[in-house]
Design the sequence.
Protein backbone atom coordinates (compact mmCIF):
# COMPACT_ATOMS: atom_id res chain seq x y z
CA UNK A 1 0.00 0.00 0.00
CA UNK A 2 1.40 3.39 -0.99
CA UNK A 3 1.91 5.91 1.83
CA UNK A 4 1.57 9.58 1.00
CA UNK A 5 4.17 11.96 2.41
CA UNK A 6 2.85 14.92 4.45
CA UNK A 7 2.20 17.98 2.36
CA UNK A 8 3.62 21.46 2.78
CA UNK A 9 0.73 22.51 4.97
CA UNK A 10 1.42 19.70 7.42
CA UNK A 11 5.13 20.59 7.58
CA UNK A 12 4.21 24.23 8.11
CA UNK A 13 1.86 23.39 10.98
CA UNK A 14 4.45 21.14 12.61
CA UNK A 15 7.10 23.85 12.32
CA UNK A 16 4.72 26.49 13.67
CA UNK A 17 3.84 24.30 16.65
CA UNK A 18 7.53 23.73 17.42
CA UNK A 19 8.18 27.48 17.28
CA UNK A 20 5.29 28.17 19.65
CA UNK A 21 6.65 25.63 22.12
CA UNK A 22 9.85 27.70 22.26
CA UNK A 23 8.28 31.15 21.93
CA UNK A 24 5.68 30.98 24.72
CA UNK A 25 8.13 30.07 27.51
CA UNK A 26 10.52 32.75 26.23
CA UNK A 27 7.81 35.42 26.26
CA UNK A 28 6.76 34.41 29.77
CA UNK A 29 10.37 34.57 30.97
CA UNK A 30 10.97 37.88 29.19
CA UNK A 31 7.95 39.56 30.73
CA UNK A 32 8.54 38.27 34.27
CA UNK A 33 12.36 38.39 34.55
CA UNK A 34 13.30 41.32 36.76
CA UNK A 35 16.71 41.65 35.15
CA UNK A 36 15.18 42.99 31.95
CA UNK A 37 15.99 46.69 31.68
CA UNK A 38 13.03 49.03 31.67
CA UNK A 39 12.84 52.46 30.11
CA UNK A 40 11.71 55.45 32.16
CA UNK A 41 8.38 55.30 30.35
CA UNK A 42 7.92 51.62 31.24
CA UNK A 43 8.74 52.28 34.89
CA UNK A 44 6.16 55.09 34.93
CA UNK A 45 3.59 52.84 33.27
CA UNK A 46 4.19 49.88 35.60
CA UNK A 47 4.13 51.95 38.79
CA UNK A 48 1.00 53.83 37.73
CA UNK A 49 -0.75 50.50 37.14
CA UNK A 50 0.45 48.83 40.34
CA UNK A 51 -3.01 47.91 41.60
CA UNK A 52 -3.90 45.98 38.46
CA UNK A 53 -0.50 44.41 37.77
CA UNK A 54 1.58 44.21 40.98
CA UNK A 55 4.13 41.88 39.37
CA UNK A 56 5.04 44.50 36.78
CA UNK A 57 5.13 47.16 39.48
CA UNK A 58 7.54 45.01 41.47
CA UNK A 59 9.75 44.76 38.38
CA UNK A 60 9.73 48.56 38.17
CA UNK A 61 10.59 48.90 41.86
CA UNK A 62 13.57 46.59 41.44
CA UNK A 63 14.80 48.73 38.56
CA UNK A 64 14.37 51.90 40.62
CA UNK A 65 16.34 50.27 43.45
CA UNK A 66 19.17 49.37 41.08
CA UNK A 67 19.40 52.97 39.91
CA UNK A 68 19.41 54.20 43.50
CA UNK A 69 22.23 51.80 44.41
CA UNK A 70 24.30 53.26 41.57
CA UNK A 71 23.76 56.77 42.94
CA UNK A 72 21.57 57.84 40.02
CA UNK A 73 19.85 60.99 41.32
CA UNK A 74 17.25 60.76 38.54
CA UNK A 75 15.65 57.90 40.49
CA UNK A 76 14.27 60.46 42.96
CA UNK A 77 11.39 61.16 40.59
CA UNK A 78 9.94 57.78 41.63
CA UNK A 79 10.36 58.18 45.39
CA UNK A 80 6.66 59.08 45.92
CA UNK A 81 5.70 55.90 44.04
CA UNK A 82 8.01 53.84 46.23
CA UNK A 83 6.22 55.21 49.29
CA UNK A 84 2.86 54.40 47.68
CA UNK A 85 4.05 50.82 47.15
CA UNK A 86 4.95 50.58 50.84
CA UNK A 87 1.25 51.01 51.64
CA UNK A 88 0.02 48.61 48.96
CA UNK A 89 -2.19 45.64 49.87
CA UNK A 90 0.12 43.52 47.66
CA UNK A 91 2.72 41.80 49.83
CA UNK A 92 5.38 41.69 47.10
CA UNK A 93 5.20 45.47 46.65
CA UNK A 94 5.51 46.24 50.37
CA UNK A 95 8.39 43.80 50.63
CA UNK A 96 10.26 45.35 47.69
CA UNK A 97 9.58 48.90 48.84
CA UNK A 98 10.87 48.12 52.33
CA UNK A 99 14.18 46.96 50.86
CA UNK A 100 14.52 49.76 48.31
CA UNK A 101 13.95 52.58 50.81
CA UNK A 102 17.16 51.61 52.58
CA UNK A 103 19.14 52.59 49.50
CA UNK A 104 18.82 56.30 50.31
CA UNK A 105 19.23 57.02 54.01
CA UNK A 106 19.21 60.78 53.38
CA UNK A 107 15.53 60.85 52.42
CA UNK A 108 13.59 61.31 55.63
CA UNK A 109 10.14 60.34 54.23
CA UNK A 110 11.63 56.85 53.63
CA UNK A 111 12.70 56.76 57.27
CA UNK A 112 9.19 57.55 58.46
CA UNK A 113 7.61 54.94 56.16
CA UNK A 114 10.05 52.23 57.23
CA UNK A 115 9.15 52.77 60.87
CA UNK A 116 5.51 52.10 59.95
CA UNK A 117 6.47 48.89 58.15
CA UNK A 118 7.95 47.48 61.36
CA UNK A 119 4.31 46.80 62.31
CA UNK A 120 3.48 45.03 59.03
CA UNK A 121 1.67 41.67 59.41
CA UNK A 122 4.28 40.00 57.16
CA UNK A 123 7.59 39.09 58.86
CA UNK A 124 9.39 39.36 55.51
CA UNK A 125 8.29 42.99 55.17
CA UNK A 126 9.26 43.71 58.79
CA UNK A 127 12.69 42.20 58.26
CA UNK A 128 13.37 44.18 55.11
CA UNK A 129 12.24 47.32 56.91
CA UNK A 130 14.55 46.60 59.84
CA UNK A 131 17.53 46.04 57.55
CA UNK A 132 16.80 49.30 55.75
CA UNK A 133 16.40 51.18 59.04
CA UNK A 134 19.90 50.08 60.04
CA UNK A 135 21.13 52.29 57.18
CA UNK A 136 19.41 55.18 58.96
CA UNK A 137 21.21 54.12 62.19
CA UNK A 138 17.83 53.76 63.87
CA UNK A 139 17.87 51.42 66.91
CA UNK A 140 14.09 50.90 66.61
CA UNK A 141 15.05 48.10 64.18
CA UNK A 142 16.92 46.09 66.83
CA UNK A 143 14.09 43.77 68.02
CA UNK A 144 13.41 42.61 64.46
CA UNK A 145 17.11 42.17 63.68
CA UNK A 146 17.52 40.05 66.79
CA UNK A 147 14.56 37.91 65.75
CA UNK A 148 16.39 37.15 62.50
CA UNK A 149 19.11 35.38 64.51
CA UNK A 150 16.64 33.18 66.39
CA UNK A 151 14.24 30.36 65.44
CA UNK A 152 10.69 31.38 64.50
CA UNK A 153 7.46 29.62 65.42
CA UNK A 154 4.65 28.71 63.05
CA UNK A 155 1.37 29.11 64.93
CA UNK A 156 -1.96 27.50 64.17
CA UNK A 157 -4.35 30.06 62.64
CA UNK A 158 -7.45 28.10 63.73
CA UNK A 159 -8.64 25.30 66.02
CA UNK A 160 -8.85 21.80 64.51
CA UNK A 161 -6.98 18.65 63.59
CA UNK A 162 -3.46 19.16 62.23
CA UNK A 163 -2.01 17.20 59.32
CA UNK A 164 1.62 17.96 58.50
CA UNK A 165 2.91 18.09 54.94
CA UNK A 166 6.57 18.53 55.86
CA UNK A 167 8.95 16.79 58.25
CA UNK A 168 11.79 17.99 60.46
CA UNK A 169 14.96 19.12 58.65
CA UNK A 170 13.09 19.88 55.41
CA UNK A 171 13.68 23.36 53.98
CA UNK A 172 10.80 25.77 53.44
CA UNK A 173 10.47 29.00 51.52
CA UNK A 174 7.97 31.74 52.37
CA UNK A 175 4.60 30.41 51.30
CA UNK A 176 5.54 26.71 51.48
CA UNK A 177 2.65 24.57 52.72
CA UNK A 178 3.67 23.16 56.12
CA UNK A 179 0.39 21.67 57.36
CA UNK A 180 -3.37 21.83 57.28
CA UNK A 181 -5.51 22.47 60.32
CA UNK A 182 -8.93 21.24 59.34
CA UNK A 183 -9.52 22.82 55.94
CA UNK A 184 -7.15 25.72 56.60
CA UNK A 185 -3.71 25.78 54.98
CA UNK A 186 -0.74 26.68 57.16
CA UNK A 187 2.13 28.13 55.15
CA UNK A 188 5.55 29.18 56.34
CA UNK A 189 5.95 32.96 56.60
CA UNK A 190 9.75 32.66 56.51
CA UNK A 191 12.53 30.65 54.86
CA UNK A 192 14.55 28.06 56.79
CA UNK A 193 14.66 24.43 57.87
CA UNK A 194 11.90 22.88 59.93
CA UNK A 195 13.78 22.64 63.20
CA UNK A 196 11.10 20.90 65.28
CA UNK A 197 7.51 19.75 64.97
CA UNK A 198 5.79 20.65 68.22
CA UNK A 199 2.62 18.54 68.11
CA UNK A 200 1.89 15.01 66.86
CA UNK A 201 0.46 14.63 63.39
CA UNK A 202 -3.30 14.20 63.57
CA UNK A 203 -3.67 15.82 66.98
CA UNK A 204 -6.16 18.52 67.92
CA UNK A 205 -4.70 22.02 68.22
CA UNK A 206 -6.06 25.37 69.27
CA UNK A 207 -5.68 28.70 67.52
CA UNK A 208 -2.29 30.14 68.45
CA UNK A 209 -0.67 26.79 69.32
CA UNK A 210 2.95 26.33 68.23
CA UNK A 211 2.96 23.82 65.36
CA UNK A 212 6.58 23.93 64.27
CA UNK A 213 9.80 25.91 64.68
CA UNK A 214 11.81 27.22 61.72
CA UNK A 215 15.59 27.57 62.06
CA UNK A 216 17.13 30.91 61.05
CA UNK A 217 17.92 31.13 57.34
CA UNK A 218 21.61 31.67 56.58
CA UNK A 219 21.03 34.68 54.34
CA UNK A 220 18.81 36.33 56.94
CA UNK A 221 21.46 35.70 59.61
CA UNK A 222 24.12 37.19 57.34
CA UNK A 223 22.10 40.35 56.69
CA UNK A 224 21.14 40.73 60.35
CA UNK A 225 24.75 40.46 61.48
CA UNK A 226 25.78 43.09 58.96
CA UNK A 227 23.04 45.41 60.24
CA UNK A 228 24.01 44.80 63.87
CA UNK A 229 27.58 45.74 62.93
CA UNK A 230 26.14 49.24 62.44
CA UNK A 231 23.56 49.58 65.24
CA UNK A 232 23.92 46.56 67.54
CA UNK A 233 24.69 46.95 71.25
CA UNK A 234 26.13 44.80 74.01
CA UNK A 235 22.83 43.08 74.69
CA UNK A 236 23.27 41.37 71.32
CA UNK A 237 26.50 39.66 72.37
CA UNK A 238 24.94 36.34 73.41
CA UNK A 239 23.11 35.86 70.09
CA UNK A 240 26.21 36.81 68.13
CA UNK A 241 28.55 34.59 70.12
CA UNK A 242 26.41 31.57 69.25
CA UNK A 243 27.31 32.12 65.59
CA UNK A 244 30.96 32.68 66.46
CA UNK A 245 31.03 29.25 68.12
CA UNK A 246 29.48 27.84 64.97
CA UNK A 247 25.96 26.72 64.11
CA UNK A 248 25.44 23.52 62.08
CA UNK A 249 24.57 24.27 58.46
CA UNK A 250 25.86 27.82 58.54
CA UNK A 251 28.68 28.75 56.11
CA UNK A 252 32.03 30.02 57.33
CA UNK A 253 31.24 33.59 56.25
CA UNK A 254 28.57 33.72 58.98
CA UNK A 255 31.15 32.94 61.66
CA UNK A 256 33.53 35.55 60.24
CA UNK A 257 30.82 38.22 60.10
CA UNK A 258 29.74 37.40 63.65
CA UNK A 259 33.31 38.02 64.86
CA UNK A 260 33.47 41.36 63.03
CA UNK A 261 30.07 42.42 64.37
CA UNK A 262 30.90 41.58 67.98
CA UNK A 263 34.23 43.38 67.68
CA UNK A 264 32.52 46.50 66.32
CA UNK A 265 30.01 46.45 69.18
CA UNK A 266 32.70 46.00 71.85
CA UNK A 267 34.72 48.90 70.40
CA UNK A 268 31.83 51.35 70.67
CA UNK A 269 31.96 53.90 73.46
CA UNK A 270 29.91 52.90 76.47
Sequence:
Amino acid sequence: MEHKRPGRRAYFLITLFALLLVLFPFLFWYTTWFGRKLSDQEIDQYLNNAAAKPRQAQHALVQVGERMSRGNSAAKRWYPKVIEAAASPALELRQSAAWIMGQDHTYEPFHDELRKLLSDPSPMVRRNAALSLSNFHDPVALPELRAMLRPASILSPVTGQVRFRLKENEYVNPGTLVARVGDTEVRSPLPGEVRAVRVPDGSQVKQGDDLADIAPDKEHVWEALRALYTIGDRTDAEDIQRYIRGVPGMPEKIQQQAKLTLQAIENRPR
Summary: The longest helix spans residues 8-32. The chain has three domains: 40-147, 152-214, 218-266. DSSP finds eleven helices and eight strands in the chain. The longest strand covers residues 192-197.
